[in-house]
Amino acid sequence: MNYKKYIILLLIPISLISCHSIKVNHATMHTASTTPMALGVIGMQHNKMMHSDFKETAIPTYKEAIRVGVNTTTFNLDAYKAYTQHSKNNKQGVTYVDSLKTKPSFLQLKITDRVTLLSELKKEENQATLAYLKNQENARMVTGVSIALPESLIIEISNAEAVFLINEKYKQYQLSLVRDGKSYKTIDFSSATVFGYRLSHFCWGISGKRKVVLLDIIDEKASCPTNTYKNAEKAKEKMDYFKL
């Protein structure tokens, strides 16, 4: 048996998969030919041998502002390559020279208030989205993004007392910057370049009223908590079993 050839064939899919992700502060972020437009959108992740893609399938309505965590980090070569793949014309004017000690910055954003996020998804205006999720075990939500912006905006967002995800325009999301308890600026996600993202999946369980309900949203690599399931139908089966 040609072991060298076998090892090469084994490594090919691993190397291809690694091309679809980057490491940012020890966290793995997806990259894809089509990236999601913003935090909070729902869609399907398609991973293939030669490319990966994220297809948005639902854009929930968020009437309450959702807290977002902000981390400023510097580009490395992999992150810069991921950025340039999604911004061929360098929309944000990022200047990166690998040999220079000083590197340009970008932002990592992640949804930190999962309680408000869950509450918003359960509201009347999102019932169609919730029904869709019950039938789509593989649906994922974008709960973290790496974004490039002009340096002045990066500094402004980093210096805000708090940052929230808001939904002031129809099917469009913005970042709200807060100072002294008041919003003083909003930034459209459309003005940023999203070049990396993290996904979360949905966990279903049984409510006190014996109904199948959405109980948690957790990282895509994590397992659902005890007595909750990625598959809403499995939660229903458990409920039906206990009715016997």
Structure report:
β11 and β12 (212-219) form a beta hairpin. The model is unreliable at 5-18 (pLDDT under 50). This protein has six helices and twelve strands. The strands form two sheets. Strands 3, 4, 5, 6, 7, 8, 9, 10, 11 and 12 form a ten-stranded antiparallel sheet that branches. A two-stranded antiparallel sheet has the order 1-2. It starts with a helix and ends with a helix. The protein is 26% helix and 37% strand. It has 244 residues and is an alpha+beta fold. The chain has one domain.
Core attributes:
244 residues; alpha+beta; 6 helices; 12 strands; Lipoprotein; signal
Mean pLDDT: 87
Order of SSEs, N→C?
HEEEEEHEHHEHEEEEEH
Rounded to an integer in angstroms, the radius of gyration calculated over CA atoms is: 20 Å
Shape descriptor: globular
The largest pleated sheet is described as:
10 strands, antiparallel
Q: With helices defined by DSSP (H or I, 4 residues minimum), what is the helix count?
A: 6
Q: Classify the helix fraction into a percent range.
A: 25-40%
Total domains, how many? Answer: 1
State which percent range the strand residues make up: 35-45%
Low-confidence stretches are 5-18
Instruction: Report the end-to-end length measured between terminal Cα atoms.
Output: 56 Å
Structural class from helices and strands? alpha+beta
- The beta-strand count equals 12
Oligomer: single chain
